[in-house]
């Protein structure tokens, strides 16, 4: 397995500045916009975090194959809930017990349930593979049609050119370019009707 030093291409006695420069360079080279893959990019990020933290985290969590492309986490379970159901029930996106309440209601599978996201798939791709018809338009980070609200867990999102920071800080993220960063996540999909997203919508494309 590659060490974080190998991933960033620095010697074991490299100083902070050298590590930071190497990280910036490797992050550019492996960014999905530049022909890299999300896994390579995440691995570079994890290596930098490891070295910045002085080696505090267990690097074994990040298992790389000989090409440096495979993360230990290969699947994540996503529990989803349709925003329309929240509105119909008179609930709020900010309710702390949103998913507990959803579990007490017999929603159909299209409204509430779970699916697995495997490998490098985006949350939107995994939802579609599970047979669901979630909203989208550009599929490339240029609109808000595919936005979801991440209620718990974390999602990595690459090249989001659209959503302002005040929304991303609230966990409103793009599912077409978002991959789970935790083994479990809870997301509310179909949040495109939130008033603050209206100006970022594009006409929907047929699936
Ligand atoms: S569909 Fe446009 S950003 Fe996801």
Automatic annotation (TrEMBL):
J domain mapped to chain residues: 3-63
Region of interest: Disordered: 19-39
Keyword Iron among record annotations: yes
Cofactor: [2Fe-2S] cluster
Alphabetical list of SUPFAM superfamilies matching this protein: 2Fe-2S ferredoxin-like, Chaperone J-domain
GO MF annotations in UniProt: 2 iron, 2 sulfur cluster binding; metal ion binding
Keyword Nucleotide-binding assigned: no
Segments of skewed composition (Basic and acidic residues): 19-32
Keywords in alphabetical order: 2Fe-2S, Electron transport, Iron, Iron-sulfur, Metal-binding, Transport
Domain 2Fe-2S ferredoxin-type intervals: 103-193
Family: Belongs to the 2Fe2S plant-type ferredoxin family.
Protein name: Ferredoxin Fer
Originating species: Halorubellus litoreus
Higher taxonomy: Archaea, Methanobacteriati, Methanobacteriota, Stenosarchaea group, Halobacteria
Chain's gene name: fer
């Amino acid at each position: 397995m590659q060490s974080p030093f190998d991933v960033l291409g620095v010697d074991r006695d490299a100083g902070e500045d050298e590590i930071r420069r190497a990280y910036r360079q490797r992050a550019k080279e492996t960014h999905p916009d530049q022909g890299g893959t999300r896994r390579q990019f995440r691995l570079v990020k994890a290596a930098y975090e490891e070295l910045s933290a002085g080696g505090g985290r267990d690097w074994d969590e990040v298992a790389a194959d000989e090409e440096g492309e495979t993360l230990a986490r290969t699947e994540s379970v996503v529990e989803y809930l349709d925003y329309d159901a929240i509105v119909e029930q008179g609930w709020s996106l900010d309710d702390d017990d949103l998913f507990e309440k959803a579990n007490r209601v017999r929603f159909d599978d299209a409204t509430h349930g779970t699916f697995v996201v495997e490998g490098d798939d985006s949350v939107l791709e995994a939802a579609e593979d599970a047979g669901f018809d979630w909203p989208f338009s550009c599929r490339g980070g240029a609109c808000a049609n595919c936005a979801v609200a991440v209620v718990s867990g974390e999602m990595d999102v690459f090249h989001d050119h659209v959503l302002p920071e005040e929304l991303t800080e609230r966990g409103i993220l793009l599912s077409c370019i978002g991959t789970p960063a935790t083994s479990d996540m809870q997301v509310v999909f179909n949040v495109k009707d939130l008033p603050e997203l209206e100006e970022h919508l594009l006409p929907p494309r047929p699936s």
